[in-house]
Amino acid sequence: MMKMVKFSIQPFISLNGRQRSFMTLVIVSLLLLCVILGGLVLSNERIATDLGNRNLGPSLAHPFGTDWLGRDMLTRTLKGLTLSIGVGLTAAAASVTIALILGMLAATMGKVVDSIISWLVDLFLSVPHLVMLMLISFALGGGIKGVVIGLALTHWPSLTRVIRAEVMQLRSAEYVEVSKRLGKSRWFIGRKHLFPHVAPQLMVGLFLLFPHAILHEAAITFIGMGLSPHQPAIGIILSESMRYLSTEMWWLAIFPGLSLLLVVRSFDIIGEHLRSRLDPHRAHD
Predict the structure, then answer these.
(1) Is the model more confident about 272 or about 255?
(2) pLDDT per residue over 3-12, tens digit each?
(3) What is the DSSP string of the chain?
(4) What is the pLDDT confidence band of residue 278, given thresholds at 50, 70 and 90?
(5) pLDDT digit string (tens) for 49-80?
């Protein structure tokens, strides 16, 4: 009987790691979907001023409590996270596009272009992201436009190096050399031969840049140099809650802060799993 049991669970044990990876991705994806849908579906009436319900602690009616104006903190948090996800996605996509263009130009357009782009990469990497982000956002007047452009212009260098190295390896491949001898243009070679091979790197880069973009957006918004105070951003919620922590209204900062970390970690998990699945040396782990 024991032998039969051991034999029946052996396949499950051998696939446990992959099953656990798949279940983790499903749970994380459902969590992010719930956050986004919650931010979009919940009514703005729940974040309207209601002085009769102000300063309430967590309860069934208000799981995250209410603030000093009677606004439901769960609704504010979900809408703030949805806004941060939208800003982070736009900025990360723009950064990936910049990295793709510069990486391919550096690898295919000769030593002069390569030297200029490499110098730009070193220049941007030598300055801390937050400092450069604050300068760009301030110069553009802040708001969503300033933050998105600032995030896009400060998060491309590392991925550019990865794309450049990948393309430089691919350009010496036999099928690329054959295309060159047949007279194919650089645009044709880049579109047909190089881009399909770097597309997985771009997808992984998008999900790995996403958490950094969200955290940096929340950081500069927290210090007043990011999104407008009239928007339900997580950075603004955390900044406003600091003045009330001494009055034991801990839920104003704890729940939004933990929710932000949970969303950031969720995108980080998705990126790590994508990288492990797309890496030929780790795909069968």
Answers:
(1) 255
(2) 444 444 444 3
(3) -HHHHHHHHHHHHHTHHHHHHHHHHHHHHHHHHHHHHHHHHS-GGGGS--GGGTT--S-SS-TT-B-TT--BHHHHHHHHHHHHHHHHHHHHHHHHHHHHHHHHHHHHS-HHHHHHHHHHHHHHHHS-HHHHHHHHHHHTTSHHHHHHHHHHHHS-HHHHHHHHHHHHHHTTSHHHHHHHHTT--HHHHIIIIIHHHHHHHHHHHHHHHHHHHHHHHHHHHHTTSSS-TTS--HHHHHHHHGGGGGGT-THHHHHHHHHHHHHHHHHHHHHHHHHHHH-TTTTT-
(4) low
(5) 888 888 888 888 888 988 888 888 999 999 98
